[in-house]
TrEMBL record:
Entry's family note: Belongs to the KAE1 / TsaD family.
PROSITE patterns: GLYCOPROTEASE (PS01016)
Keywords: Acyltransferase, Cytoplasm, Iron, Metal-binding, Transferase, tRNA processing
Residue sites binding substrate per the record: 131-135, 164, 177, 181, 270
Catalysed transformations (reactions): L-threonylcarbamoyladenylate + adenosine(37) in tRNA = N(6)-L-threonylcarbamoyladenosine(37) in tRNA + AMP + H(+)
Protein name: tRNA N6-adenosine threonylcarbamoyltransferase
Residues of the Gcp-like domain: 22-304
Domain of life of the source: Bacteria
Length: 332
């Protein structure tokens, strides 16, 4: 299967066998382009995808050492994401499927993040997925392959978005998540910040209050003419985010009798989160599945892995497939 991912600021093309074996996974990040604006500029992202997609298709096929005639299907992220960015991938996918007379499979980007785990682990259901990415923070109950029931979600900012926003306020480069993670590991002391638990039985999340608390600390230092304690703030912020994620995820594992806890999305690359979840899962005696670091952030191999769910059921899309910026996971 050839898979294409262009939902945000990574252009990626992969060749994946049986939803499990990566033959190639070419990723071109636009981070340097967007860095000077402090975040992704949608129109610039679309144009960059257009520039890269053709040579990346060629490179992915070449690296896999296959001919186009050996392909069985074309998979492409149909949503959610930036409309202009998604369109580039969807049009490329349709063109290839049409030219090669192959089935087309539209894939939900978050299903991709979750099924990145299938490239390295055996999934056992029921499982709980904790999705933490640039645009999503969700707890998802999965009772079988491709069955997604969202039991909790963020009511405001996504975890990755909060990381990026507080990093920007402290003058760190975009994307801020990895920088905050590194500083949090290095700092010896932390600035205490609030935890947002919401109602006792809720699996929802909220990070905007925490973000405002960080901004207040930063602004107070600036007003007093003092240096911003970037590392101590990073440590306090990360501790607050992780406490809430770990607590709610493990409560869900117990309540639903999950056989595994699966971590997915860009923030799954966070060292603090990985180690705290691993500790907790050991206590719970439930395996923790995490993707390898390189498969946490956006890539097309994960799209090929998720597409296999549809291939298995021979559920294909027509040439009417549309880019859906707001595509719902439960309706995919
Ligand atoms: P979505 O998948 O929700 O559409 P996205 O595709 O933009 O959003 P991803 O590529 O999944 O997001 O993840 C990018 C996010 O992950 C960024 O917010 C980035 O800061 C964050 N991130 C990456 N590495 C780390 C890390 N080590 N610690 C914390 N956050 C991280
Ligand atoms: Mg990205
Ligand atoms: Fe993503």
């Amino acid at each position: 299967m050839l898979a294409i991912e262009t939902s945000c600021d990574e252009t990626s093309v992969a060749i994946v066998e049986n939803g499990k074996i990566i033959r190639s996974n070419v990723i071109s990040s636009q981070i340097e382009t967007h860095q000077r604006y402090g975040g992704v500029v949608p129109e610039v992202a679309s144009r960059k995808h257009v520039e890269s997609i053709t040579w990346m298709l060629e490179e992915a096929v070449q690296e896999a050492g296959i001919s186009l005639q050996e392909l069985s299907a074309i998979a492409v992220t149909e949503g959610p994401g930036l409309i202009g960015a998604l369109l580039v991938g969807v049009v490329a996918g349709k063109a290839l499927a049409c030219a090669l007379d192959l089935p087309l499979i539209g894939v939900h980007h978050i299903a991709g993040h979750i099924y990145a785990n299938q490239l390295v682990h055996e999934l056992e259901y029921p499982l709980i997925s904790l999705v933490v990415s640039g645009g999503h923070t969700e707890l998802i109950l999965m009772e079988g392959p491709g069955q997604f029931r969202i039991i909790g979600r963020t009511r405001d900012d996504a975890a990755g978005e909060a990381y990026d926003k507080i990093a920007r306020a402290m003058g760190l480069p975009y994307p801020g998540g990895p920088h905050v993670d590194r500083l949090a590991q290095e700092a010896e002391s932390e600035i205490k910040l609030p935890r947002s638990w919401l109602e006792a039985d809720s699996y929802d999340f909220s990070f905007s209050g925490l973000k405002s608390a960080v901004l207040n600390v930063v602004n107070q230092s600036k007003m007093r003419g003092e240096a911003v304690q970037v590392a101590q703030i990073a440590k306090g912020f990360q501790a607050s985010v992780i406490d809430v994620l770990v607590e709610k995820a493990s409560r869900a594992v117990r309540e639903y009798g999950a056989k595994q806890l699966l971590l997915a999305g860009g923030v799954a690359a966070n060292k603090g989160l990985r180690s705290r979840l691993a500790e907790r899962c050991e206590q719970l005696n439930v395996p923790l599945l995490v993707p390898p670091l390189g498969l946490c952030t956006d890539n097309a191999a994960m799209i090929g892995a998720a597409a296999f769910l549809k291939w298995d059921k021979q559920e294909f899309d027509s040439m009417e497939l549309k880019a859906e910026p707001q595509l719902k996971l439960e309706e995919w």
